[in-house]
Amino acid sequence: MAHTHLLKRSTLVLAVLLGIVSTLAHGATAPEPQPYGEREEVKAFAHELAQKESLDEAQVLASLAEARYLPAVIKAILPPASPTVKSWVRYRARYLDRTRIAAGTAFWREHAATLERAEAEFGVPADIIVGIIGVETIYGRNQGNFQTLSALATLAFDYPPRAELFRRELGELFLLSRDTSKPVTNYKGSYAGALGLPQFLPSSIRRYAIDYDGDGKVSLDTSADDAIGSVANFLKQHGWERGGAVAVPARVMDPQRATALVEAGIAPSFRKQDFERLGVAADTPAAEDKPAALIDLVSPEAATEYWLGYQNFYVITRYNRSSFYAMAVFHLATAVRLERERGG
After folding, report:
1. Which of 21, 140, 173, 278 could bridge to 202 as Cys pair (CB 3.0-4.6 Å)?
2. Residue 294 to residue 255: CA distance in whole angstroms
3. Tell me: the pLDDT tens digits for 22-66?
4. Is 53 a catalytic residue?
């Protein structure tokens, strides 16, 4: 009986959530939620955060009362109402256009000394740092204009599928505000709460961002030096191998036989003999005999691209857990480096 009741209750809750999601996805008007300062779960959050982190509970709640529900944030984070098949060809084209490559070479030229210093100190190549900042914000042009407090409150309290993650980030935003003495209402960034040139979430700013221009504060929204050092530090802390390869093209003789390798995920778990046994080989004689993953980049309109992704490819996916993302960073990094070598 208990199991049946729980199943019925879970089914009802899921149906309600799916109905809300469907309504929002199709553009219908959802009822405006109760103001955050009046909601019991928000009061409980403020109490717990204040107790755990020695914050002023009344001030936390007063700040949350200033947050506003942002329908645009929910619309941005929802999957499309009519999902399309993923396409590497289309995804890559979004990040490898002439505008972004030209902006990347200009950014590298302007900040060459800082990039060289970061590469020497952290072991992360300049082109990879340039690739990440380029994919994230086109070198600061697109940092987002959502009030971070309201964006994170919206996701923390009105987007159940990922509420746990965004409640943690909302708490980190208050701690970041305390760390920097910047009012919690004064942060602006992406719809998901990411901030600055490298689009760090508040928790990543507190753990990995560094003052790399020596002015006594971390300013990821205005200091390219701080952004460069922070990206390099993030990648190093996540296991970047100095001098290691990122990825190399692969030949797959029989995609069916290689399915198990692809499905094993993007962590580098297989060696050369494992790949050879299943008809997979690096498409370059200079490939490293180090653990790698088989990465498939699928496009409905083109043949699937296969790559061997090494430890450093995996590290880039710690920034954004997507093989498409990591490969776009790698390709943009390569394109900007080549353009720079040509004198661009």
Report:
1. 173
2. 11
3. 444 444 456 778 999 999 999 999 999 999 999 999 999 999 999
4. no
